[in-house]
Amino acid sequence: xxxxxxxxxxxxxxxxxxxxxxxxxxxxxxxxxxxxxxxxxxxxxxxxxxxxxxxxxxxxxxxxxxxxxxxxxxxxxxxxxxxxxxxxxxxxxxxxxxxxxxxxxxxxxxxxxxxxxxxxxxxxxxxxxxxxxxxxxxxxxxxxxxxxxxxxxxxxxxxxxxxxxxxxxxxxxxxxxxxxxxxxxxxxxxxxxxxxxxxxxxxxxxxxxxxxxxxxxxxxxxxxxxxxxxxxxxxxxxxxxxxxxxxxxxxxxxxxxxxxxxxxxxxxxxxxxxxxxxxxxxxxxxxxxxxxxxxxxxxxxxxxxxxxxxxxxxxxxxxxxxxxxxxxxxxxxxxxxxxxxxxxxxxxxxxxxxxxxxxxxxxxxxxxxxxxxxxxxxxxxxxxxxxxxxxxxxxxxxxxxxxxxxxxxxxxxxxxxxxxxxxxxxxxxxxxxxxxxxxxxxxxxxxxxxxxxxxxxxxxxxxxxxxxxxxxxxxxxxxxxxxxxxxxxxxxxxxxxxxxxxxxxxxxxxxxxxxxxxxxxxxxxxxxxxxxxxxxxxxxxxxxxxxxxxxxxxxxxx
Length: 558
Hints:
Structural class: alpha/beta
Strand order of the largest sheet: 3-4-6-5-7-8-13-14
Distance between the termini: 84 Å
Largest sheet: 8 strands, mixed
Helix content: 25-40%
Shape: globular
Number of strands: 14
Strand content: 5-15%
Mean pLDDT: 90
């Protein structure tokens, strides 16, 4: 039997004509496969730690971004602690210590400056400290003469209220409890070294968050308007959804057209080869994954490099270029013949003859080499052990070092966002049709067996999120800021599914051109050194916050 590109050329041409054109991130984008990638990344980090003698803080939720902590300098932001109830909704005396950090550089007693609090979100709060130092918290605190705070989210970092991450012990990790934490903190905290009462509502608190924490910022303004004077929700995913297929569609449309074309072509070719028994073994072998038993596990590994898109940041000191490097790798011509790259993908002169009368575009061979070099090479055991997702026992360890269990629990109970192919089979795509909702969500049953006190629902209760406002969530002194090419934009109020709004001082509604994920959160010590679009948004943020503060009056003075 001869299997050449001609077997599925009609499919390729139809699609081409239709579209000419690590830790937490792993879990967010890849589900069960994300757990595998998280483990491999941790193993690599442990190996690398034997080389580097300096500790590293992984900043934000981008696995590639690192800040090196200089242990020889005094720590300007030491850990602080605040006592919280484990369960705000029950009559219980059980408590835990929630960690936070403060920036008092610009505080003057009695000046009436605000408190700018940044929600730590779904990662260790340590990862947010750079935003306290040079990012949005420092920018707003400096402009307003306020105090900056980073508040670590319950269960993350060192704010852990339980002895392990079993299903029962995770039952207090939900939207209601975490919101109550923030409210209790704002109304009762006493900052070290400060005698002045800076609690809400006697002091203006501006609540900032990005991504999941951005949704929390919006929710806090709606749920606790008497405590939250103003809120800034950046890349705020206020719309929860079961399937998050639009995530990759944003990337497909925003990426360089040549790269997007390579990915679309490769996706259709690989899906077609997997449907032919003798070719299936060959294509898996090409990627170094011939012993991976399940086809959906195989294609989910191929999805991994797409997560690099979210790691883009405007500041080259912390941003990633890995997505662009991946695209360049796909376009690398065979035997250095650059003229081949100028031909349309799938052109006969670009095809490489392979055993079994298979012909593939050279970009697919490059794709395979990239996966082998960057993922398969990290596997020290069998590929089934490293990349298989059907062995339930691999997801049942509940120790405190299994940090992947946290955000995934929130996904499985309230937030969703399972990575899938588009529901329309004719929709151009850069991920396999084998990435179904059933496949992506099966981790919920695997990782969280029913406990004595809590059972994870068959599908997440996304109504718990969407009931707070969904795309339409709004309030005075609540700002929404999004990136134009953020893969999470379809889940924000700037989604194409949402009704457009007017951008006003009282209800700012801003989009940053060509920006990815919460670009406004990052900053430089000197704003004038920032790129024009970032400097512009920071100036606008300072302006509307200053306008908000003009109207602030403590309850006793109203």
